[in-house]
Amino acid sequence: MLNQLKLFFMLYYQPQKAMGSIIDTGSIAGAIIAIILSSFLFVVITQPIFDEYEQKMIVLPKQNVSFANQPSNSEVKENFEEYPEIYHPKIRQPLPLVGNFGWWFVTFSLGSTLGTILFLPLLYVPVTILVLIFFEPLGSFGVVFRRDYAPLLACTLLSWSATHLPFSLLAIAIKPNAKTALLLWLLCKISFAIFMVIALRVVFSASYFSALGTLSISWLSVLLQSLLFWLMSPFIIFWVYFYLRGDIGAVGGDVMSSFRQRQSFRRNLEAATINPQDAEAHYQLGLIHKQRRQYSEAIARFQRAVEIDKKEIDAYFQLGIIAREQNRLQEAISYFDTVVSLDDKHSQSEVWREIGATYQVAGMKEDAHTALEKYIERRPYDAEGLYYYAKVLVELGKTEKAKEIIKQCLEAVETAPYYRRATLRRWSKLAKGLLKT
To answer: In the chain, how many domains are there?
Structure first.
């Protein structure tokens, strides 16, 4: 429990590192407790908004009006001026800025606020994964769901709690009116969106574009939130479980088992680093940090690996890739030169592709041409290498040769195995854009 509290507060000052620690040592049970408590406190913000804008029409008949003579609620709402002395209806008011259109997407009722406890795990997280796989080549929904649902759920629940708790405590202190509460509610949602961008980058190594695109679509899952209360019918739950209990058990077991195995693997790697001669453990931890875009931690692990073993070629290669991504081009070339000196064909000669791409960014076109030409001779159907080579040829003014290489790049993508085409699609688009220019 103390570890959960530590991770919770770490989200405020080191969110990216906290997300990684949640994946490594977090608990789904602890995250559920956090969101239950924060949801009950969040009512302090949503209740004033509900009372002011959303409360249903209240019909208050005068004492001397018989029940038989009372018109219907809809009739009163449409012809309110005819019943000014008999009825006092309170009708849902338009929201600021968005008007009545906003009621299609939000609700501030008590049931909806507390329903977030079910909404996030049952709708929002699965929909987020489903949308993300259209932006990022992560694999099929079933595979990604079993592998990453639990880590993303833990990050999502704690992020929701961490972003809503401070504003809820502030509301308790200041007792806001409806407009102030609405502003606090909006700040909660913006903060949660920012944390979710970080979560998607850490859990899936997604780009900012993919993360923002996913969140801009997945929030529409709130339209389905009302279905949860219907689906929670004991009758429906019984029959769903009766017919699908084997599949539900398998999926649930796979999800939690995957989460536990991931955490166990991380603990074993950390334990292995106690051995001062184990460079491989540091290298594997560096890969985990790199996948999470925690580059400073990754660099530290890779550097420790090469300190232990001067011939840890994979660590040099990864240090070069990170240096190139961070535009430290001279350091990148230095690391890649070390790789070449140890193994000229490392990683199926991909080191030459990285060298060529680095020289190209540095404006050293001839050196880039030499490196990429060597790579293409060895890997003539690598779409990424072909794109880089075509780009250098264009910069050198060799347009006819560039057209030939671009066509080869497009062919490499089209003839690739189906499961790899999503990964290679980026280079196909870039090559087509280069061809137009």
So the answer is: 2
Of 122, 145, 154, give the one whose Cα is nearest residue 254: 145
Residues linked to residue 95 through DSSP beta bridges, in sequence order? 99
- Rounded to whole angstroms, how far apart are CA atoms 48 and 239? 39
User: How far is 394 from 158, CA to CA, in rounded Å?
Assistant: 49
Domain containing residue 365: 288-295+306-436
Q: How far apart are CA 275 and CA 254, in angstroms?
A: 32
C-alpha torsion sign, points 359, 363, 364, 369: positive
pTM beyond 0.90: the answer is no
Where among 213, 231, 249 does a domain terminate? 231
| CB-CB contact of 344 with 333 (8 Å) | no
Query: Which among 68, 130, 106 is positioned nearest to 186, based on CA atoms?
Result: 106
DSSP conformational letter for 5: H
Token pair recorded at residue 293: 């875009």
Please state, rounded to an integer, the average pLDDT across all residues of the chain.
Answer: 84
Please report which residue ranges of 343-382 form alpha helices under DSSP H: 346-361, 365-378
φ, ψ of residue 99 in degrees (nearest 5): 65, -150
Determine the pLDDT at residue 221: 81
CB atoms within 10 A of CB 117: 17
* Phi, psi (deg, nearest 5) at residue 126: -60, -40
Same domain, 112 and 195: yes
CATH at 381: 1.25.40.10
* 205-224 per-position pLDDT tens digit: 999 999 999 999 998 887 66
Burial of 414 (0-12, 13-18, 19+ CB in 10 A): exposed
Model pLDDT for residues 150-187, shown as the tens digit of each residue: 999 999 999 999 999 999 999 999 999 989 999 999 99
Residue 83 lies inside a defined structural domain of this protein: no
In a domain, 243, yes or no: no
Q: What tokens were used for 355? A: 């060298």
Instruction: Give Dmax (Cα) for the chain.
Output: 99
DSSP for residue 417: -
Q: Report the alpha-carbon distance of residue 359 to residue 67 in Å, rounded.
A: 86
User: For residue 168, what are the CA distances in angstroms to 2, 51, 269?
Assistant: 22, 17, 40
CB 323 within 8 A of CB 335: yes
Would you place residue 41 in the very low, low, confident or very high pLDDT band (cuts 50, 70, 90)? very high
In which band, very low, low, confident or very high, does the pLDDT at 42 lie, cut at 50, 70 and 90? very high
pLDDT digits 0-9 by tens, 230-245: 555 555 555 545 554 5
> Within this chain, do residues 7 and 123 fall inside the same structural domain, yes or no?
yes
